[in-house]
């Protein structure tokens, strides 16, 4: 191995602040159409005292299947201790929630408790869907597509953005949905709308332009042109597969290349600054810090998507799970502290979910296997705070094959968020009308 | 018009430079003009045999991996005795010592895993048997386990060597091997799958992801399958069947019943007609086209025929792959140049094809990880999703910048560029051209690097070359290659 230092992200993506200012300017015609601020008509939910005009949804994905029973702990149910002789949270360690009886929080969730006390958090108990699927991938697809059959490659947020495209004559900003992370989640994939996604702040520049002066102009001509050539005649070979043949990948890559150039200019500018408050050092906290910067820079973004992993605790769960919960709740708490310091807190609603909860009974490896229903968390000024709904019963005759039975359908939470917060018709997005979960305060809706 | 779905071979005379370029890109990682020409001159049958029957190609020059098998090995009996004595004397100190020792070993193991990933990447770049590595990568992503969970680099190396040994053999052998593979057993917790407390993880993923797919088994099949797999464990880096914790009772799986063990459970699965369909789907996605979003009718028809071929060949992969690589469907215009390169494909392919000096492998692998594909570290047991999932607004820049590194050896730093000097002379790529006009140079480079998309970018490249007053110099040629590797179409093969 050579002595040369390994490629760091910073080197590779190659952007000191000085470089940002020398980035090629976006041609005006592109800038206009693609980046116009989204507040196009009177549909915006403004003019309600205390309710902001441009509302933002942040989705936090807890990947792997969060063990709901060791998160929101039913210490008042003896079955909990009988099922988990070696990994139940002791009653004396449980953090108590005001007004809740026999149910409390994992001791690592002190930041969440503090947000609950401040009226900034709500926990919806026992969220799931009928005929639960215990596969990570299938259940995650169900949550992402809001389709209990797993959908066909389109996510609920992507379809919501498609609705927006339809209502706004095909013109919404490319940054309407921004996903922090390597791969754009299925949830954000629309038929027409594709999200912006990236992993680190120093992104979005082709370094080749620095090597040969003549290259930049030619590169920009090609990569900022959009879909051209035979690929533009996509009618015969559509962007997604059809009965007539495979998807046209050239058209897809060309469109992504154009998106990348535009996003480059805008997002690198937004992420150059520092936050006002301190964030803990964890992957989720770093992602939420980036989201806060983009909110501060007034990006015309309606949905941000972040995630954290490792919740698949089949073995040695107690220490690992507690650490994850601590990271999760501290990151969200820091995010809202930053939003408050920026004066933007009331614009931002956060929804945190996992693809399923875990089996009631622990396994032989001091862990838990895949289960069904679990808690969903929402944060912000506009939610009804506290513990909502009922904790699922742990009584043997109330379990389904050893798993909890859900008592709130996750799609009724989506409906609440879409109709009540995003002002996007949930019945169109979800394919049917679900009763709203009413986590959002009625006062804020009108 | 819908593409041909026939698996019958194309006419021998239809196998030209473009077809050879396509074959080498899909059954390997692409090639230089000389390598493509050599394949073309063999003709279709011999070219395909050459790539698929790769055991005939001498590869003894490739370096063997260096690995310490014992970094994560559990302690010996003497160690444990000594520690028990130490513990009796001072428990707190003993615990602290154990913790420090464990952390030290984990750190060493992470470094060893990194070295092994770099060994494998270097092997992909250097091998004279590209299909062997491409298949090994396929099985790594298909029977996916990762170091983040396994925490034992030696077990993952052994698994990698198993995949390589069986790569073009029989899928049945791979399926039998995976339920005995220590890394997979550890990854999916089958070492704690015991008769009294079955752990369903391996049984579920075996059917859901490795052999059948969702919808082709029941939750009850999983519970029974988990019972069959009880006792499949490992000890001292080797598979071990622990009879006392095996459930010897009768199980009913996929409609068959018997006192199955793990091997018999796999046999029951292999007798199910859905299994070849599932494997054929994987082969299609790996070698033919991205069908993640919505399988089109032509792909479904080809997958069904491929499944028949695999079933008829009793899961032997070589005849199945040969049929595919010679087929009319494989050389359809809608198929050629319409697959998104995986990170391995673009990194290994660029390193092999551009003819640049060997660059730092750690740098190449770090770049691959940033594109979403770290070797020995697929994101989950489902492997890498691939297809359009590889390309987003950020990975596109990483892909372009990685090519710039391969071509120039330069890394962008905080305050300028690293000091490695440009030592790449690509003039050899056009050495055999009789005339070196901008048009001739553009056509030649694009035919090799862009395949079927070459005509679409001819004007762009000719314009760039004509605009250089120096003529076709070394620097201008490097510039042309920088531009080509930053084209959207370079992301496809």
In total, the number of strands of chain B is 6
Helical stretch tally of chain A? 13
Major protein interface: A-B, 81 and 90 residues
Strand content of chain B: under 5%
Largest sheet of chain A: 9 strands, mixed
Q: Would you give the CATH topology of chain A?
A: Alkaline Phosphatase, subunit A
Q: Order of strands side by side in the largest beta sheet of chain B?
A: 1-2
Q: N-to-C terminal Cα separation of chain B, in Å?
A: 21 Å
Map the helices and strands.
The complex is a heterodimer of chains A (446) and B (493).
Chain A: H1 9-13, H2 17-21, H3 28-35, E1 56-62, E2 72-73, H4 78-83, E3 95-96, E4 104-105, H5 110-117, E5 121-128, H6 136-145, H7 156-167, E6 177-180, E7 196-198, H8 215-223, H9 249-270, H10 283-296, E8 303-308, H11 317-342, E9 348-354, E10 374-379, E11 386-388, E12 408-409, H12 410-422, H13 426-430
Parallel strand pairs in A: 1-8, 1-9, 5-11, 5-12, 6-7, 6-8
Antiparallel strand pairs in A: 2-4, 3-4, 5-10, 9-10
Helix pairs in contact in A: 5-11, 10-11
Chain B: H1 17-26, H2 33-42, H3 44-52, H4 77-89, H5 91-126, H6 130-142, H7 147-150, H8 153-166, H9 171-178, H10 182-187, H11 201-211, H12 219-229, E1 232-235, E2 238-241, E3 251-253, E4 256-258, H13 262-270, H14 274-287, H15 297-312, H16 317-326, H17 343-353, H18 361-370, H19 393-408, E5 412-413, E6 416-417, H20 438-449, H21 454-466, H22 474-485
Antiparallel strand pairs in B: 1-2, 3-4, 5-6
What does the model show?
The complex is a heterodimer of chains A (446) and B (493). In chain A, 32% of the residues lie in helices and 12% in strands. Chain A is of the alpha/beta class. In chain A, a hairpin with a 7-residue loop joins β3 and β4. In chain A, α5 packs across α11 and α10 packs parallel to α11. Chain A starts with 8 loop residues before the first helix and ends in a 16-residue tail after the last helix. Among the domains of chain B are: 100 residues, no CATH class; 66 residues. In chain B, 54% of the residues lie in helices and 4% in strands. In chain B, α14 packs across α15, α18 runs antiparallel to α19 and α19 packs antiparallel against α22. The longest helix of chain B is centred in the first third of the chain and has 36 residues. Chains A and B meet through α1, α6, β7, α8 and α9 of A and α11, α15, α18, α19 and β5 of B.
């Amino acid at each position: 191995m050579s002595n040369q230092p390994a490629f760091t992200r910073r080197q590779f993506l190659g952007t000191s602040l000085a470089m940002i200012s020398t980035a090629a300017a976006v041609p005006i015609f592109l800038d206009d159409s693609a980046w116009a601020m989204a507040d196009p008509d009177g549909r915006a939910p403004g003019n309600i005292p205390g309710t902001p005009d441009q509302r933002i949804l942040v989705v936090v994905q807890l990947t792997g299947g969060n063990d709901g029973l060791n998160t929101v702990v039913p210490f008042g149910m003896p079955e909990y201790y009988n099922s988990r002789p070696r990994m139940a949270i002791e009653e004396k360690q449980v953090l108590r929630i005001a007004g809740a009886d026999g149910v409390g929080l994992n001791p690592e969730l002190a930041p969440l408790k503090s947000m609950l006390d401040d009226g900034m958090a709500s926990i919806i108990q026992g969220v799931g869907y009928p005929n639960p699927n215990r596969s990570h991938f299938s259940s995650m697809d169900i949550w992402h597509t809001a389709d209990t059959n797993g959908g066909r490659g389109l996510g609920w947020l992507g379809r919501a953005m498609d609705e927006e495209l339809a209502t706004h004559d095909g013109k919404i900003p490319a940054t309407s949905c921004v996903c922090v992370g390597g791969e754009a989640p299925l949830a954000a994939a629309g038929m027409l709308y594709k999200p912006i996604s990236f992993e680190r702040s120093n992104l979005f520049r082709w370094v080749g332009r620095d090597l040969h002066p003549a290259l930049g102009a030619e590169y920009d001509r090609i990569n900022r042109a959009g879909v051209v050539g035979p690929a533009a005649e996509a009618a015969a070979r559509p962007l997604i597969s059809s009965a007539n043949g495979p998807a046209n990948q050239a058209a897809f890559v060309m469109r992504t290349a154009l998106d990348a150039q535009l996003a480059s200019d805008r997002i690198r500018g937004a992420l150059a600054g520092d936050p006002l408050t301190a964030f803990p050092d964890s992957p989720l906290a770093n992602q939420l810090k980036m989201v806060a910067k983009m909110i501060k820079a007034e990006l015309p973004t309606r949905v941000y998507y972040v995630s954290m992993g490792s919740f698949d605790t089949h073995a040695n769960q107690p220490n690992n799970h507690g650490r994850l919960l601590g990271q999760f709740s501290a990151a969200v708490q820091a995010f809202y502290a930053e939003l408050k310091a920026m004066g933007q807190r009331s614009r931002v609603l956060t929804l945190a979910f996992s693809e399923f909860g875990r089996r009631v009974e622990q396994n032989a490896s001091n862990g838990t296997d895949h289960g069904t229903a679990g808690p969903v968390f929402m944060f912000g000024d506009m939610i009804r705070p506290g513990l909502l709904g009922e904790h699922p019963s742990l009584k043997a005759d109330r379990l389904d094959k050893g798993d909890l039975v859900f008592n709130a359908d996750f799609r009724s939470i989506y409906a609440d968020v879409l109709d009540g917060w995003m002002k996007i018709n949930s019945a169109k997005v979800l394919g049917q009308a679900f009763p709203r979960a009413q986590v959002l305060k009625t006062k804020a809706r009108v | 018009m819908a593409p041909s779905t026939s698996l019958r071979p194309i006419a021998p005379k239809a196998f030209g430079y473009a077809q050879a370029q396509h074959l080498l890109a899909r059954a390997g990682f692409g090639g230089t003009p000389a390598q493509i020409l050599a394949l073309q001159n063999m003709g279709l049958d011999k070219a395909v045999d050459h790539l698929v029957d790769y055991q005939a190609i001498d590869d003894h020059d490739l370096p063997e991996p260096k690995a310490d098998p014992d970094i994560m090995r559990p302690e010996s009996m003497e160690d444990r005795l000594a520690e028990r004595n130490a513990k009796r004397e001072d428990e707190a100190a003993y615990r602290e010592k154990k913790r420090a020792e464990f952390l030290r070993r984990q750190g060493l193991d992470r470094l060893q895993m990194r070295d092994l990933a770099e060994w494998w990447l270097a092997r992909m770049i250097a091998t004279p048997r590209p299909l062997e590595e491409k298949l090994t990568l396929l099985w790594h992503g298909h029977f996916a386990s990762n170091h983040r969970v396994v925490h034992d680099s030696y077990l993952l190396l052994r698994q990698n060597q198993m995949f390589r040994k069986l790569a073009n053999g029989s899928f049945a052998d791979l399926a039998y091997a995976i339920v005995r593979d220590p890394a997979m057993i550890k990854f999916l917790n089958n070492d704690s799958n015991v008769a009294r407390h079955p752990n369903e993880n391996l049984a579920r993923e075996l059917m859901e992801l490795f052999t059948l797919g969702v919808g082709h088994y029941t939750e009850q099949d999983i519970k029974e399958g988990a019972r069959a797999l009880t006792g499949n464990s490992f000890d001292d880096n080797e598979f071990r069947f622990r009879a006392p914790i095996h459930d010897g009772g009768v199980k009913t799986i996929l409609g068959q019943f018997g006192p199955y063990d793990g091997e018999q459970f796999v046999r029951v699965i292999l007798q199910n007609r859905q299994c070849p369909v599932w494997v054929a789907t994987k082969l299609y996605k790996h070698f033919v086209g991205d069908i993640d979003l919505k399988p089109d009718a032509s792909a479904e028809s080809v997958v069904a025929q491929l499944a028949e071929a695999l079933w008829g060949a009793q899961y032997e992969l070589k005849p199945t792959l040969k049929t595919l690589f010679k087929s009319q469907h494989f050389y359809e215009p809608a198929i050629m140049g319409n697959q998104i390169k995986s990170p391995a494909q673009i990194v290994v392919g660029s390193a092999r094809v551009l003819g640049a000096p060997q660059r730092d492998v750690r740098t190449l692998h770090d770049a691959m990880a940033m594109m979403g594909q770290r070797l020995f570290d697929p994101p989950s047991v489902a492997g890498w999703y691939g297809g359009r999932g590889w390309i987003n607004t950020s990975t596109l820049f990483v892909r372009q910048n990685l090519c710039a590194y391969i071509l120039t050896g330069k890394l962008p730093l905080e305050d300028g560029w690293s000091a490695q000097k440009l030592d790449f002379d690509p003039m050899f790529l056009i050495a055999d051209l009789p005339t070196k006009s901008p048009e001739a140079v553009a056509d030649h480079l694009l035919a090799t690097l862009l395949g079927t998309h070459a005509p679409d970018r001819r004007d762009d490249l000719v314009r760039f070359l004509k605009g250089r007053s120096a003529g076709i110099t070394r620097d201008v040629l490097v510039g042309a290659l920088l531009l080509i590797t930053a084209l959207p179409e370079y992301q496809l093969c």
